[in-house]
Design a protein that fits this description.
292 residues; alpha/beta; 4-stranded parallel beta sheet; two-stranded parallel ribbon; 38% helix; 15% strand; globular
Length: 292
């Protein structure tokens, strides 16, 4: 028996679809019951993430064996197949949101929180690459507000949805962390090849740092979404809001889950011991280079 029989909704928003087989079932089941299906996808769907300014028309990655449901190994390709499943079930009624890094209160990944915490501690902070490296992120509430407005106006299609509106660099992001926390942190920018030699793990051990062949994920073209109303809370306010939530959570003894719905671990950031080890190695190499 179909429990949805005879019921109708303006829209459904799927924020946690990872496996196309499952998403296809939900989309088929809801096809006659909803006007619009919103699927939160990812910028990871693009086949070539090595260039800046990727727009929605760029090719998506594919999976040779479409029955392979390993999310950790094939995240981007599976998201692309999920998109296809939704669009097949509801042609011209699907809104596909290709999101970037989502941040703010209740973020369980820790990818922004770990930077805020570390900068707040002060002292010498390891910073990846150069201050000019482009990064992107979006406050969850900004994305949610935009999705609601898109539903209200019955807009469909595919959109890159991240932020902010103007180019953000890693240097600006860390300076904003320092301003939000009022710390005395000083940033030591370490060459990416050096980090790679020491096997620093991008995006997990060092959040918001990706190697060059993937950094396009942090510089997506969001002009299409902005043109239909995507807007942003000031970055400083988002960081302060996130910091306050994190402090209240820790004071109340709140614990975060060990893994996300995708199966990925939630822990992010580098340990202080590992950071010190890398900084010492960098300074030693720099001294040796100056002496030759």
């Amino acid at each position: 028996m179909n429990l949805l029989s005879g019921k109708r909704w303006d829209a459904v928003v799927n924020t946690c679809g990872y496996v196309p087989r499952v998403v296809r079932k939900s989309a088929d089941l809801l096809a006659a019951a909803v006007r619009q299906y919103v699927f939160v996808s990812s910028g990871s769907v693009y086949a070539d993430l090595s260039c800046d300014g990727i727009d929605e028309g760029a090719p998506v990655t594919t999976l040779e064996d479409e029955t392979n449901e390993s999310v950790t190994e094939n995240y981007g390709a599976l998201k692309a197949l999920c998109e296809r499943a939704v669009e097949s079930a509801m042609p011209e009624r699907a809104l596909v949101v290709r999101s970037g890094l989502i941040v703010g209160p209740y973020d369980q990944t820790g990818r922004l929180i770990c930077w805020i915490r570390r900068v707040k501690e002060g002292g010498e902070v390891l910073a990846p690459g150069t201050p000019e490296r482009r990064v992107q992120l979006i406050r969850a509430r900004d994305m949610a507000n935009w999705i609601i407005r898109m539903i209200e106006s019955a807009r469909t299609g595919i959109y890159n949805v991240t932020g902010p509106a103007s180019q953000l660099t890693m240097g600006e992001l860390l300076q904003t962390c320092r301003e939000a926390s009022g710390s005395n942190a000083e940033f030591t920018w370490i060459d990416e090849d050096f980090l790679d030699e020491l096997k620093v793990a991008p995006f997990s051990e060092m959040p918001l740092w990706l190697p060059g062949n993937l950094n396009g994920l942090l510089s997506l073209d969001i002009g299409k979404a902005i043109a239909v109303g995507l807007s942003f809370q000031p970055l400083l306010e988002t960081f302060v809001e996130t910091m306050d939530w994190d402090r209240e959570r820790l004071l109340s003894g709140g614990k975060k889950p060990e893994r996300l719905a995708s199966g990925a671990p939630t822990h992010a950031g580098i340990s202080r011991e590992r950071e010190r080890e890398i900084l010492n190695a960098w300074h030693s190499e720099s001294r040796a280079a100056r002496q030759t």
